[in-house]
Amino acid sequence: MKIVALAGSIVGSKTRTATLKMVDLLQKKYPEHEVTLLDLADYQLVFSDGRNYFDYDGDTKYVTETIMAADAIVIGTPTFQASIPATLKNIFDLLPVNAFRDKVVSVIVTAGTSKHYLMVEQQLKPILAYMKAHIVPTYVFIEEKDFLRKEIVNDDVLFRLERLAEDTVMVTDAFADIRAKKDAEYDF
User: Can you give the residue ranges of every domain in the chain?
Assistant: First the structure.
């Protein structure tokens, strides 16, 4: 299984910290799976101009093709102005409408206050559903107070991240089994 952990911002450290923690959890618990970190701060991406994702080159091509090759994607995003950052929206714009068909997507959100939890429900999940993702129903919401010196210090958050890693792999396995049974119904 290929899992991509996408840190969807080019500024700040909290989303990267949380996404790196998820990568660490996945690699330790599921060493048989290929886990790739895509931290958007590490890449120079162009703005979407309507081309197919495979027509781009450089970092943009690498990031979009890596996402498209994944079986599961963990999206880490901060909350900026009660919304997702433009860098993450650009990723969605670079990909085709059905980019997440047959892919499982789980979410980690960082925010300065608990009042921003609705961003996931009202903005991010509808985008993912539109792009045909199988969305892991629970997500991990991490507030400013849960971090200290670029580390997660809340044990409950660490437990929820561990559970999200398990749920992501289990849901991906379940959907793979469902697809295999459906494919077996065809005789060609």
Answer: 2-184
How far separated are the first and last CA of the chain, in Å rounded? 25
Q: Write out the chain in H/E/C secondary structure.
A: CEEEEEECCCCCCHHHHHHHHHHHHHHHHCCCCEEEEEEHHHCCCCCCCCCCHHHCCHHHHHHHHHHHHCCEEEEEEECECCECCHHHHHHHHHCCCCCCCCCEEEEEEEECCHHHCHHHHHHHHHHHHHCCCEECCCCEEEEHHHEECCEECCHHHHHHHHHHHHHHHHHHHHHHHHHHHHHHCCCC
Distance CA 39, CA 172 (A): 22
Rounded Cα–Cα distance for residues 146 and 140 (Å): 12
Measured at the CA of 131, the angle between CA 58 and CA 121, to 5 degrees, comes to 115
CATH superfamily of 2-184: Flavodoxin domain (3.40.50.360)
- Per-residue pLDDT of 143-182, as tens digits, reads 999 999 999 999 999 999 999 999 999 999 999 999 999 8
Output the pTM of the full model: 0.95
